[in-house]
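[Discussion] Sanity-checking designs against the backbone

I'm trying to build intuition for which residues belong where. Below is a structure token string of 449 positions. I'd appreciate it if someone posts a full sequence so I can compare it with mine line by line.
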């Protein structure tokens, strides 16, 4: 294999070691300017970056042999993604590597804000012992609104499971809600939320998303957490809302004033007025863009990148592909002469909790997520099992139905009909070798409850 990879930022050593072992040729250049790297990028098939400079059109035009750009981080906004994709360059990011870190950091900021830990700590260090003014708030009973329900948003919602809070999410994609957060409209989120947590990418649409009008649309005073990108918030508008009491406090891991590299704070000299306010405000917790920056994520990010580059060039090993397929039994469906009477019999004699559709069994998977399995008799003349002639139909829970159906088709498995999306998940159908129809279900279990 003759694949040369240029690394322009330092990363966990396992990244280079494992790529080397896989047979890639690795070169480091942590110091040359963008212009200097542009002169030699034509010699490389891959580039591994963090955030040192923007990969723009000029750069991409010079990268005539580039096959992939891997970013050891979650967001890809420092890359002209559209242009790169138009040149058939694969984009690789590693949100799986730092989503747990971001979620724990966000929760840490939220609990610290609610319990005034930053202020109390400062006061004690300066000899003050103020109990009343350090009285805290409890999360219990509050509503947390998450905007952007992707890797980070989902991971944060999972951390909130142990608290008695209602978790809502808003996203531009449909059907992303799950057992940990109910998907709602932006209006509903703004009406109900006590805490807003941003987990959106930085795009033209989300740039300055949280401005005066956006804040005014919230029905109640609320707390803001931002671990996305600083420019998602108009800081001056948020500060005005803090002064008026509409925003109760803020936990900010990212600031409007950061440089694109995240390595330094100010683009220009001087401290903006709104930032000066944040610096002296007791109800504000700041951290220097480190939510995803833990000892554990340092290694995990590198591993995810290696795994994805490996997958691009060598595909998944049979184990990796199979592992992700079925995650549980989603349901057993069978034909019955009189489904209603049968359901009543099972309720009476076996104590099943039944409804018109049969019975739903609830259980928890290894990660503690609520999962359901459905047991349902169908009318004898149902066409739902066709083209199968059998009396039974099985339903399996899967993690990524769209990808799985593509893989199954490639393997020559008969796929019946098109994938369908409903409130409770995505459905697809296949036939096994004996002519049994199998329903594949990527569930949204919460809706059933
Ligand atoms: N602070 C840190 O250290 C740190 C670490 C990792 C990620 N991040 C940031 O967190 C953010 C989220 O990352 P992710 O990996 O979860 O991304 P993701 O792509 O997995 O999820 C983002 C979600 O936001 C949704 N979205 C996009 N535009 C939207 C809009 N206008 N309104 C509502 N939803 C919208 C998308 O549909 C998607 O579901 C990014 O900005 C990323 O850069 C920060």
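Best answer:
Here's mine. Compare freely.
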């Amino acid at each position: 294999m003759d694949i040369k990879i240029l690394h322009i930022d330092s990363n966990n050593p396992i990244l280079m070691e494992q790529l080397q072992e896989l047979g890639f040729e690795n070169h480091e250049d942590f110091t040359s300017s963008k212009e200097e790297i542009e002169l030699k990028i034509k010699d490389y098939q891959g580039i591994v970056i963090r955030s040192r400079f923007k990969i723009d059109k000029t750069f991409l035009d010079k990268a005539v042999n580039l096959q992939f750009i891997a970013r050891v981080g979650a967001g890809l906004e420092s890359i002209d993604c559209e242009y790169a994709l138009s040149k058939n360059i694969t984009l690789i990011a590693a949100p799986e590597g730092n989503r747990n870190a971001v979620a724990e950091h966000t929760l840490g900021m939220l609990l610290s804000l609610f319990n005034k830990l930053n202020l109390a700590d400062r006061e004690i260090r300066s000899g003050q012992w103020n109990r009343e003014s350090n009285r805290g708030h409890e999360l219990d009973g509050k509503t947390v609104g998450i905007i952007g329900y992707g890797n980070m948003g989902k991971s944060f919602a999972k951390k909130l499971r142990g608290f008695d809070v209602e978790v809502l999410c808003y996203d531009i994609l449909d059907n992303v809600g799950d057992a940990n957060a109910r998907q709602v409209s932006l209006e509903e989120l703004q009406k109900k939320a006590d805490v807003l947590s941003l987990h959106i990418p930085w795009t033209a649409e989300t740039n300055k998303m949280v401005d005066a009008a956006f804040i005014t649309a919230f029905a109640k005073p609320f707390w803001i957490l931002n671990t996305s990108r600083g420019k998602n918030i108009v800081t001056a508008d948020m500060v005005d809302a803090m002064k008026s009491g509409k925003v109760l406090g803020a936990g900010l891991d990212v600031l409007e004033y950061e440089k694109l590299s995240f390595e330094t704070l100010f683009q220009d000299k001087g401290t903006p007025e709104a930032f000066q306010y944040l610096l002296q405000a007791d109800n504000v917790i700041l951290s220097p863009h480190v939510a995803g920056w833990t000892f554990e994520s340092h290694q995990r990010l590198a591993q995810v990148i290696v795994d994805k580059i490996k997958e691009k060039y060598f595909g998944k090993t049979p184990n990796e592909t199979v592992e992700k397929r079925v995650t549980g039994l989603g349901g057993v469906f069978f034909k019955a002469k009189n489904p209603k009477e049968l359901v009543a019999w099972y309720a009476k004699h076996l104590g099943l909790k039944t409804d018109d559709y049969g019975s739903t069994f609830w259980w928890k998977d290894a990660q503690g997520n609520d999962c359901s399995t459905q047991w349902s008799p169908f009318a004898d003349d149902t066409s739902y099992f066709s083209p199968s002639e059998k009396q039974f139909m099985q339903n399996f829970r899967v993690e990524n139905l769209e990808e799985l159906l593509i893989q199954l088709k490639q393997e020559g498995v008969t796929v019946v009909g098109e994938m369908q999306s409903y409130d409770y998940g995505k459905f697809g159908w296949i036939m096994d070798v004996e002519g049994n129809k199998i329903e594949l279900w990527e569930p949204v279990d919460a809706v059933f409850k």
